[in-house]
Design a protein that fits this description.
The protein is an alpha/beta fold and about 375 residues long. The chain is built from eleven helices and nine strands. It folds into two domains: about 5-120, Reverse transcriptase/Diguanylate cyclase domain (Alpha-Beta Plaits); about 155-370, no CATH class. About 40% of the residues lie in helices and about 10% in strands. It is elongated, with a radius of gyration of 24 Å.
Length: about 375
Amino acid sequence: MNRIYSHKEFRTVLEKERARSDRTGHEFSVLFFETGKSKPLTRYFISVLSKRIRCYDGIGWVDQKYLAVLLPETSAGGAEKMAENICRTIIPKKLQPRCTVFTYPTNWIDEKKNLSIQFREADTLLGSKKGYVDSEMFCLDKSDLLLLQKMPLWKRILDIIVTVLGLIILSPLFILIAAFIKTVSPGPVFFKQQRVGFLGETFNCWKFRTMNTDSSTSVHKKHFSDLITNNVPMNKLDEDDNRIIPLGKLLRKSGLDELPQLFNVIRGQMSLIGPRPCIPYEAQQFLPWQCKRFAVLPGLTGLWQVNGKNRTTFNEMMRFDIFYAKNRSLWMDLKILLKTGPAIVEQMCSKKEGIKQGGTFSEPALSQNKLNAC
């Protein structure tokens, strides 16, 4: 009988298979069976399953109700045939579990064939499409949705406590910045922009306005495309950007323009710590592995910001974000919070730098090998 992986073990096995698929280009499939909570029926199903799968396939728990089967180098059609074969073996038919087939990287579900098993719509796992990035744009693998870790209670408590204290302490600074912007530039004090958050959900992200009201986004779109394709440091356009209002560069470099996002944290759209929320047209250009950053709430600051930021490339930034999504902890969040202030001071005092050979990672726990594994 094949070994049954625990939830944590199966998650690791699945991540390794995805990394192998990204390297080789070979697709693989995963069958998710809803077995229910009856232990006798589950044991019976596992015994049937173990006799039907190949020796190099993997069986693992997703949670107490879902059992998954990893099928390396198996297309969607092959996976459906195997699922049908497995369910046909189970007698009586009323015991047949519901099954969903996911194929990486295409994530295709054949809904047209009359199989003896019941397929659930993959998109229902995301809820309504309203308020989410278009499915053709949003490339987070839907099999991840059954493996997502819920936001820890400690993280929400930390967000609320620090954010409320921050709003109270920084309220005079809010007033000062707002009055300055109103004085030097006509237009609103705040800038509202649609951003992509948890699981591709879009929300209105708030900032202090640091650019003229008639500024075009075409320059930023071209700059972002260059960052993705050319493997260059993540420098901003601020130095040569004439769209920025007086002293706007200082507000942007110090991060003070991001302070209104504390209200996004209060509303639960963001967290203090997490990947920076991207713009929808940026998410459209992400590769499948890069979309793993959407598995956590976006943040005001994060692992990337305190580990090089503008000295890192786009792919290095993504690996920091994904590493955090997989390994977040209270201790890591506290360390990032404590390092954010010094990182901002260093950024304000530094000039443009190129990428150092061997990377720019200052966190001892974040070796290049660990990041590449993301």
